[in-house]
Amino acid sequence: KMEDDDDIPQLSSHTLAALQEFYLEQQQREGMKTSQGFNQYSIGSIEEDWQLSQFWYSDETASCLAKEAVLAAGKGGRIACVSAPSVYQKLKEQDGEDFSVCILEYDRRFSVYGEEFIFYDYNHPLDLPENLLPHSFDIVVADPPYLSEECLQKTAETIKYLTKGKILLCTGAVMEEQAAKHLGVKICKFIPKHSRNLANEFRCYVNYASGLD
Fold this sequence. Notes:
Rossmann fold; 5 helices
């Protein structure tokens, strides 16, 4: 017979913390291997998973977007990264700065980041933890995983729920009209680059006066 879920042993918080530490150390070790052909833009040992339609930004683009998010969020600001793990990584590198950040991501490998990680499936845009209060983020940085209106529309529900107002969206140039329709964002001059060249032209969109023009 199928075992009951209840029979699965629960790890104590102490064990979990030790496990997390182990994973982070492992990631740092992986990170040290970058010279041996690892992609240094990936998060430690977390590499792009194309089946999840993951494409990391180039280091320069991730830094630029992270810097913009921090400026837009302001002192003590809260930043949400929705399906934008490479921006999250750059924000984590600036540890000790005066802001906090959450990552909403489908890829459960990011759960090593503990409470900052929120499992997110755009098909269920408002299926979010209760402690994630509406309009509690100063800025939301989002990169919907697919170039489809359905994906943008659903991700837009999440963005609108989370943000106090400011939105920084990265998606294909072909999505300009839909981005305006669903989120009221306009295209910026800044052109995001990926660590691998993608076939689709990517652009950034914002709904506030940003430093990306």
